[in-house]
Design a protein that fits this description.
The protein is mostly beta strands. Helices cover 9% and strands 40% of the residues.
């Protein structure tokens, strides 16, 4: 039996524009007694970036940046960078996050040596539309699919926001394993109704 002690709220929204609407769903990385928090920072209008705070132990916040740690730079993330997950492999931090372009939410990757400078690697999960997904799930019909995977498809169809081929299956909450397996990066993410494992070669053709 695991005992859990609730210690209360450690971060709240501020008057800073990038996080004046909400702060939540952080990725955590601990080095000794230092805890790095990469959180979703939401400004009014529901535009997200990745904020940063540092803690010593579970309660003492020693640093909190007044600007986003990672900002929106590309079209694939122009509406939001959400739900960061962080691991460190060898001397590099790997940050996976949900990139939201206003229609599609896909998993993207950024890397850093120092949590100050970041290199973005773009979308790393398959770009599959809903019709392709239905064909991907063998011997099924729509009643067998998790309805949440069609709610955005149906919504966008109703308002005519994007053509079918551009409405992609949402693919979120990707996390890399904290070490390579057989020399390869391996990630875990929910795709369709099941969790999937994928090998990922970063920076390789």
């Amino acid at each position: 039996m695991v005992t859990i002690e609730k210690l209360g709220i450690i971060l709240s929204p501020t008057e800073n524009e990038f996080e004046n609407n909400g702060v939540f769903n952080p990725g955590i990385y601990q080095e000794g007694n230092i805890i790095h928090i990469l959180y979703r920072a939401v400004q009014h209008g529901n535009y997200s970036t990745i904020g940063y705070a540092k803690m010593e132990g579970p309660l003492k916040v020693t640093e909190r940046k007044q600007q986003p740690l990672i900002s929106r730079d590309f079209d694939y993330e122009k509406h939001g960078m959400e739900d960061a997950r962080i691991v460190k492999i060898e001397d590099t931090y790997y940050i996976t996050y949900t990139a939201y372009d206003g229609i599609n939410a896909m998993a993207a990757l950024a890397t850093s040596k120092d949590l100050i400078h970041f290199e973005k690697h773009g979308i790393i999960t398959p770009r599959i539309n809903y019709h392709e997904y239905e064909n991907f799930v063998a011997c099924c019909n729509q009643d067998n699919l998790n309805p949440k995977y069609h709610q955005y498809y149906n919504l966008f169809a109703q308002i005519g926001l994007a053509d079918d081929k551009f409405r992609l299956l949402r693919d979120k909450d990707v996390v890399l394993f904290p070490r390579k397996i057989n020399g390869k990066f391996v990630l875990l993410h929910p795709f369709g109704r099941e969790f999937k494992l994928y090998n990922l070669m970063i920076g390789k053709n």
